[in-house]
């Protein structure tokens, strides 16, 4: 088990988990056996847990900084709340201080090696943010994070990194394994004025069984470079050598807006992410970016 870097997978509340051995983590890539298992479950479910993929002390340091700041952010009337203040679900991005930008968080070699098998070798990260779910009476509506036309095949992956153990008792998001296979823009309805964005049509919500697995906070959205996505991650110029080194070590490149001085991670707003494409061919293929009529007859 240790030699292969692979162990028998298990399920956590309906979501498959693959344990990454310490040896694989030290080497910095997933074994062929692990890759085969991960790809199979990602194609089937659209979500999977990699256990033991990140050094715990790195997560502890991030939590020590971000947890006390969460309540302070929540009191800020100008801060962005996902789907309105009543949800108490706030944007809280990872810090961009040089000593807290850990490679196994920002450019995890195990995750990148798996994504290269899915998306190809030229990967680009366009977005780095996080959500903190504070105690609240309200909740977010059921929704997809992409409210633009997009292909049915995998074209981007979100790498979600938990800083605490989370489940349905403390604010874990609901995830629908398998819903990625027929996700498209026509499944959405526009929310009323007190909330912003799109939600899944109520009839579809009732049809699907929702599952709340142990779930994450920080998210990194990674795509192949041919999509030419416009969004960039704002980072301080002093971290450029570090970020450039990640590309050499893992193969993951960041689309970056460099700034002199500090880059305030508390100002990152998920409303600013742009899911469009700079690839001129992609919009011409929009009619193919949905299931066949037979598969959507119930809509």
UniProtKB/TrEMBL annotation:
InterPro entries: Fungal_Metabolite_Diox, Phytyl_CoA_dOase-like. SUPFAM superfamilies: Clavaminate synthase-like (SSF51197). Transmembrane segments: none annotated. Pfam families: PhyH. Gene3D superfamilies: q2cbj1_9rhob like domain. This is Phytanoyl-CoA dioxygenase family protein.
């Amino acid at each position: 088990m240790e030699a292969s870097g692979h162990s028998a997978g298990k399920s956590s509340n309906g979501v498959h988990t693959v344990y990454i051995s310490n040896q694989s983590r030290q080497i910095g890539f997933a074994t062929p056996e692990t890759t085969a298992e991960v790809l199979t479950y990602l194609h089937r479910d659209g979500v999977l847990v990699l256990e033991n993929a990140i050094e715990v002390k790195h997560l502890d340091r991030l939590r020590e900084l971000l947890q006390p700041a969460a309540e302070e952010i929540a009191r800020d009337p100008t801060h962005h709340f996902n789907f309105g203040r009543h949800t108490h679900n706030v944007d809280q991005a990872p810090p961009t201080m040089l000593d807290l930008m850990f490679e196994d968080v920002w450019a995890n070699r195990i995750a990148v090696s798996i994504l290269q098998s899915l998306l190809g070798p030229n990967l680009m990260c366009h977005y780095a943010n996080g959500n903190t779910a504070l105690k609240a009476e309200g909740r977010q509506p059921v929704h997809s994070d992409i409210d633009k036309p997009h292909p049915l095949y995998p074209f981007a992956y979100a790498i979600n990194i938990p800083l605490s153990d989370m489940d349905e008792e403390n604010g874990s998001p609901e995830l629908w394994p398998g819903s990625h296979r027929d996700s498209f823009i026509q499944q959405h309805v526009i929310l009323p004025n007190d909330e912003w964005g799109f939600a899944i049509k109520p009839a579809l919500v009732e049809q699907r069984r929702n599952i709340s697995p142990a779930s994450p906070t920080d998210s990194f959205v990674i795509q192949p470079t041919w999509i030419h996505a416009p969004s960039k991650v704002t980072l301080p110029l002093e971290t450029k050598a570090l970020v450039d080194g990640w590309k050499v070590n893992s193969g993951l490149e960041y689309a970056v807006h460099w700034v002199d001085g500090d880059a305030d991670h508390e100002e990152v707003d998920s409303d600013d992410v742009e899911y469009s494409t700079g690839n001129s061919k992609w919009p011409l293929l929009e009619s193919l970016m949905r299931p066949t009529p037979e598969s959507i007859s119930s809509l």
